[in-house]
Give the backbone structure.
Amino acid sequence: MRKMIVLVGVSVLAGCGQSGSDGPQETAAASRFVGAWHLARFTRTAADGTITYPYGDPPGGQIMYTSSGQMSAQLMRPVDGLSGSAADGEASDQTQFFAYWGAYDVDETAGTVTHDVEGSGSRSWVGSRRVRAFRFEGEDRLILSPTDGADPSVVSELTWVRVPN
């Protein structure tokens, strides 16, 4: 009986040690994500070639990826100064700043990173999976392009530059 209890205990402990889907896949691409990144550019390009800058030019923002499979992102339109009443400022703040966080997973074969949103400034994002096509330009530039946009004729591209250690 004692041997059976020990075997069951060892089996349970071995199962707890498995990584499963709790963190990013340990691939070369996944390890390149780890760190802090500054948002250098965010563009939306329409089918007719028109380019817009949803968070200004240049935008404000940061995205962070941890080695344990967590991420967070913040985007904002830089503030030029104070104007308008307090109520106007509060409403404006809500439309000029966006943040979310959660787990992430890299699919190197598909060239995508998926953000599993646990919390967000937008309730509709909570519990969603946000898939982004990715590519690296050198060691310090990461380009993300959402694949789940409402309008497939519009291509969004976020250019992130690694924050030096």
Observations:
- The two ends are 55 Å apart (CA to CA).
- The beta strands are 35-45, 51-52, 60-65, 70-76, 97-107, 112-120, 129-136, 141-146, 155-162.
- The longest strand covers residues 35-45.
- Residues 1-24, 84-88 have pLDDT under 50 and may be disordered.
